[in-house]
Amino acid sequence: xxxxxxxxxxxxxAAIDPRRLAREVAELCATPSVTGDEAAAQRLVARWLRxxxxxxxxIAADPQAIAADPDFPGSEVERTGLPLVIGRAGRPGGRxxxxxxxxxxxxxxxxxxxxxxxxxxxxxxxxLYARGAVDMKxxxxxxxxxxxxxxxxxxxxxxxLLVVSVPxxxxxxxxxxxxxxxxxxSDLAVITEPSGxxxxxxxxxxxxxxxxxxxxxxxxxxxxxxxxxxxxLQVIVRCLEADEAARNAAETHPxxxxxxxxxxxxxxxxxxxxxxxxxxxxxxxEGRYGVRxxxxxxxxxxxxxxxxxAAxxGDEWLRDHPATVEVxxxxxxxxxxxxxxxxxxxxxxxxxxxxxxxxxxxxxxxxADMRLLVNEGRTPTVIFGPGDVAVAxxxxxxxxxxxxxxxxxxxAVWLLRELGAS
Length: 422
Fold this sequence. Notes:
Layout: H1 7-14, H2 18-29, H3 39-51, E1 55-61, H4 63-67, E2 82-90, E3 96-102, E4 122-124, E5 127-129, H5 133-152, E6 160-166, H6 174-181, E7 188-191, E8 199-203, E9 205-214, H7 229-249, H8 254-257, E10 265-272, E11 282-291, H9 297-313, H10 316-320, E12 324-332, E13 335-336, H11 342-355, E14 361-364, H12 370-375, E15 381-383, E16 398-400, H13 401-419
Parallel strand pairs: 3-6, 3-7, 7-15, 8-14
Antiparallel strand pairs: 1-2, 2-6, 4-5, 5-16, 8-13, 9-11, 9-12, 10-11
Helix pairs in contact: 1-13, 2-5, 5-13, 7-9, 11-13
């Protein structure tokens, strides 16, 4: 164990059992929890928290009530339940720290692209392969293990520790908002999403949009008599490309500038046309539009609409037959915690003392529940977890088990430093 740790810190770090963590990551990954169907995974998390000695609250949040909330972050699946799990340890009423994770995962996609079965975890070369392994069941198990180590070693706590497990992160974050409305806010929070054991202190966001672009039908042999909606979509795409370049060039925050393209715009789905020999009279395209750091989803939507309107105004056909814009699904805002915030400094020091390496401070181009804790929960939050987000949502998703254990050790030491009684 690192000589930088005092005896109590060394003891709590040593209480992390890598073999137990590997079994738990496998068991949680073997419990399917595709967004909208997270109840079984939440029951498992609740059981583990109770066995670790935490007081557990299972909350059946009302999706309709959350949908009516002014800060509702959108959703992409219909649901009848919104199960939350909160484990508590220590003394309420004083300083409070949150460890947060989500149990929902994205669908497996094309199963033939997987070398292993998505919900039958396999360990190869120290990596556990399964849907949800890195995003983010490995991180959630690390958070639970850190809390368990603090409780089971009998470390006295001067404050309160909450382990919060939420559903519905992948489709917008209504699970996190429900937890915030249930009182899951704090002085400091860490979300154990994959970060390669570095600290994510800033992240962008995104909104999903649908363009409906009109044209005029005509027989293919009389193509010039028609107006191809596909051609007009290309007019709008060129304008969106120019808008993307301008928005990214205007960014000055170093964490976002170093990403190169922090705010991408893409068209991910296009459909239209009814007959091969007919000029297309309507095309519907769906895509993603980045939310800039410091910007709300509503402000990003206004920029998107302005870009599409400018494209229509500059085209003879679209000027009189403008495309329509609909924003739907999850609305991911942005968030930031300064690099000199006590959370960043303290967690960074605990990671360095425990793991022997100084974690980098990173910005990320994607949305996360961090923005809800920061903006709606008024809780300073960073992302720190095992694995590489580049393999999230992909076939053959995996998490390095050594990083899960390292994450748990570093978090346990940090918890002791933040909440331990002198």
